[in-house]
Write a structure and sequence with these properties.
Blueprint: H1 8-15, H2 20-37, E1 41-51, H3 77-89, E2 94-99, H4 105-121, E3 127-131, H5 137-146, E4 150-152, H6 160-166, H7 173-186, E5 189-192, E6 195-196, H8 203-215, E7 220-221, E8 224-225, H9 242-263, E9 267-268, H10 272-277, H11 281-287, E10 292-293, H12 300-303, H13 319-332, E11 336-337, H14 346-354
Parallel strand pairs: 1-2, 1-10, 1-11, 2-3, 3-4, 4-5, 5-7, 6-8, 7-9
The protein binds 5'-deoxyadenosine, iron/sulfur cluster (SF4) and FE2/S2 (inorganic) cluster.
5'-deoxyadenosine is lined by residues 60-61, 154, 156, 195, 224, 226-227, 229, 273, 308-309.
Length: 355
């Protein structure tokens, strides 16, 4: 079934759910919608955070350009391909290449080569998703030709005024919208998402985010709680104790559930940031309606330098440890892993038929 037309008020009511029992009921309702539309399988996207060099300066992000407390790295092409092939060997259906934003010619060539090699050396079997920020249309086209078929680019919030407060003046909300349009036009499956619980964000904004996903026919959604990072201009903006963590986690779960109930057949990630707020955060995400997990497959030596927010999990672990850890977590909620499958969203296939 395609998305149902819940009104903004109805979505707001879901997001305003209060009480333990009521939250459980909401998650159960979302879980039923998930079973009906995408089923019990969790699909993996092995995440390679290959460089923390970023030319941007988002006020919330731990690897922003002006943070001098980060030592910058870029994995070599061989290291990236090796990580991807490890994931392929384990039966992960896809990998995600993510980094800070760069758009110089050297970087564009580098990514193009890495993507082509992964495609070739995995015998065309690994799905390749990119998460490399705003780029010109030509760059997106080159990477698509090289073999990438999905692209993640979060809008962070659909509220333009709030967007302007989270970013320096040279960031442009319209430019991001153009990127989404270009990506779609080229043929990528497009993923977007927002941060949940940003200072100045209210439930109406979150409801509008869900309507934005719907109106833009988005195939995949990755969203997680906003978590302050101490070395950023917004790092001091919240008192972050156990009570706040609980509230933020619950809001994020409500957002996942409301998105599943509204959009039904899309892929929704249970993001790492959920696990930063509760050790069982990602399992809770699955129970609230998410169906995608991104196991970290970045070499351990780089992980501590890719800290977008405080308390990011898996910093000292390696790919193997995350693999067994997640297997146990997924098993604990009675779900199975869709090994060796790309796990495209049913929404994408329906959209293709329509176009
Ligand atoms: N808290 C939560 N998510 C964050 N991101 C960046 N900084 C933070 C933070 N402090 C997210 C943004 C970005 C993605 C790569 O990481 O949504 O798009
Ligand atoms: Fe760079 Fe992305 Fe962080 Fe912004 S959110 S500073 S673009 S890595
Ligand atoms: Fe990385 Fe649990 S998922 S250690």
């Amino acid at each position: 079934m395609p998305s149902v037309d819940l009104s903004k008020q109805e979505i707001i009511a879901l997001l305003e759910t209060e009480g333990e029992r009521e939250l459980k009921d909401l998650c159960r309702r979302a879980y039923d919608v998930k079973m009906e539309n995408v089923g019990k399988k969790v699909y993996y996207r092995g995440l390679i955070e290959f460089s923390n060099v970023c030319k941007k300066n988002c006020y919330y992000c731990g690897i922003r350009r002006d943070n001098r407390n980060v030592s910058r790295y870029c994995m070599s092409e061989d290291e990236i391909v090796e990580a991807a092939l490890w994931a392929h060997g384990c039966g992960y259906g896809s990998v995600v290449l993510q980094s800070g934003e760069r758009s110089d010619a050297e970087f564009v060539d580098f990514v193009e080569r890495a993507v082509s090699r992964i495609k070739k050396e995995s015998g065309g079997e690994l799905g390749i998703t990119l998460s490399l920020g705003e780029q010109g249309r030509e760059t997106y086209e080159r990477w698509f030709k090289a073999g990438a078929h999905r692209y993640l680019i979060r809008i962070e919030t659909s509220n333009r005024e709030l967007y302007a407060k989270l970013h320096p003046e040279d960031h442009d909300f319209n430019a991001r919208l153009r990127c989404i349009e270009n990506l779609r036009d080229i043929g990528y499956q497009v993923g977007t998402g927002v941060m949940i619980g940003l200072p100045g964000q209210n439930v109406e904004d979150l409801a509008n985010d869900i309507l934005f996903f719907r109106d833009n026919d988005i195939d995949m959604i990755g969203m997680g709680p906003y978590i302050p990072h101490k070395d950023t201009p917004m790092g001091e903006s919240l008192k972050w104790g156990e009570k706040e963590k609980r509230t933020w986690l619950e809001l994020a779960l409500k957002m996942i559930a409301a998105t599943r109930i509204t959009l039904r057949d899309v892929n929704i990630a249970s993001t790492t940031a959920l696990q930063a707020l509760d050790p069982k955060g990602r399992e809770m995400g699955l129970e609230a309606g998410a169906n995608i997990i991104m196991p970290n497959i970045t070499a351990t030596k780089y992980r501590s330098q890719y800290k977008l927010y405080e308390d990011k999990p898996c910093m000292d672990e390696n790919s193997m440890m995350c693999r067994s850890c997640l297997e146990a977590r997924i098993d604990s909620v009675g779900e199975e892993i869709g090994y060796k499958e790309w796990g495209d969203s049913p929404h994408y296939f329906k959209r293709m038929k329509k176009e």
